[in-house]
Specification:
Helices cover 67% and strands 9% of the residues. By secondary structure, it is α+β, with helices and mostly antiparallel strands.
């Protein structure tokens, strides 16, 4: 479903509803602020890189920004992929200093949540910022087809570990399916990927 420049996955709507029912709403709102900061980092980096934004996509695993057909260097791609996590890290630093000045449970939650957003999104898994950044970096050093195959293997190994962690979290919490749902979505994304080389093979770093 697309409204203007906003594209919403129909599967995401009922899943988000379930998350709101199964989790504390205040916690969800705080996590949403972390997600907004993360995507704002990508948004600013895309604009600074000279690319155009095609649409904002709201999916199962969260939000993402889809760029237009502008061809960017691999170095600019890496900068764009890492910018979201960098903004979460800066947000965590701000929360840390606010905690030292005036402690509050919400600030502590925001501090650890932003660190989680930063680390999780930088995992070397396809569909996450870290996996895409590694793919762009390897494309600088080797053939893009080869870099794609390497990243698919690393993604599969990373997802295998993450899946079992999500299962343990689900059993331990008895209700928190957030990480489990994200893992399933990433698995579907990895399965749907083809081994076709990137269409912009002639780009330079």
């Amino acid at each position: 479903m697309k409204i203007g420049r906003v594209e919403i996955s129909l599967l995401a709507l009922p899943l988000w509803g379930l998350l709101l029912l199964w989790n504390d709403r205040n916690m969800i709102l705080l996590l949403l602020s972390c997600a907004v900061v993360h995507e704002a980092g990508h948004f600013i980096a895309i604009l600074l890189s000279g690319a155009k934004i095609e649409c904002f996509r709201l999916g199962v695993t969260g939000a993402s920004i889809r760029m237009g057909e502008t061809l960017l260097s691999y170095r600019k791609e890496i900068w764009i992929y890492l910018s979201g996590g960098l903004c979460n890290l800066l947000y965590a630093v701000v929360c840390f200093f606010l905690i030292r000045h005036s402690y509050h449970d919400n600030l502590l939650f925001l501090f650890f949540s932003n660190l989680f957003f930063c680390v999780f999104n930088l995992l070397p898994i396809g569909g996450l910022d870290g996996g895409e950044a590694i793919k762009s970096y390897l494309s600088l050093k080797t053939d893009p087809m080869q870099s794609d195959n390497i990243c698919r293997g690393v993604s599969a190994a990373g997802l295998f570990c993450l899946f079992w962690i999500s299962c343990l979290l689900l059993v331990w919490s008895k209700c928190n399916m957030s990480l489990f749902i994200i893992c399933l979505s990433l698995m579907i994304n990895l399965k749907d990927q083809t081994s076709v080389g990137r269409k912009n093979l002639s780009r330079q770093g």
